[in-house]
Amino acid sequence: MAARPHTRGRKDDTIAAVKAEPVDASALGMPALLQAVRACTLCAVHLEHGPRPVLRASATARILVVGQAPGRRVHASGVPFDDPSGDRLRQWMGVDKGVFYDEALIALVPMGFCYPGTGKSGDLAPRPECAPQWRHRLLAAMPRTELTLVIGQYAKEWHLPGSAGQNLTQTVRAWRDHGPRVLPLPHPSPRNNIWLKSNPWFTDEVVPELQRRVRALLQTA
Hints:
36% helix; 4-stranded parallel sheet; 6 strands
């Protein structure tokens, strides 16, 4: 039986099940919306290291990368995927840092924007208040997005609700079923090395397709 991908956190709280009263930001353009997100303190009382929302986005982004939440290193730097996971993700995508961090092309919008802290088995789950408060608004402000990379279990639950009942391995293996605009991925954390070795089809099939889709979108940007 295939090993299950590491998902960097616990699943005590289901993100999609939490309802939060939205702030009145429906009329904000992307710059003002990002300013509001970065000033958010909604779940500050639950954050041992304090709030520091980390994301990058623009109204022109063609590719949306949906991770889980910043880790300790990203919390310190304020730069999404500024860690070994980011190195592997960029390798999978076939892009360098210059392209990856060009927010006019690629948006980096995780399920939780602040570092949730660390538990017994790794980083805690993204705070459940974050996605209901901001996610629909941010996605609506990126009308040119043509490819969404859904990374890990928490992103899967929100962006691929039709995959309910499947574990992450099953969802990633069924990548063809999700059409040309969405591609589910395991987390690129080094802690997933065992999973990657146990599932060589991912490197053989999914990574080349990911690079093909990314290259096609960037060439027409």
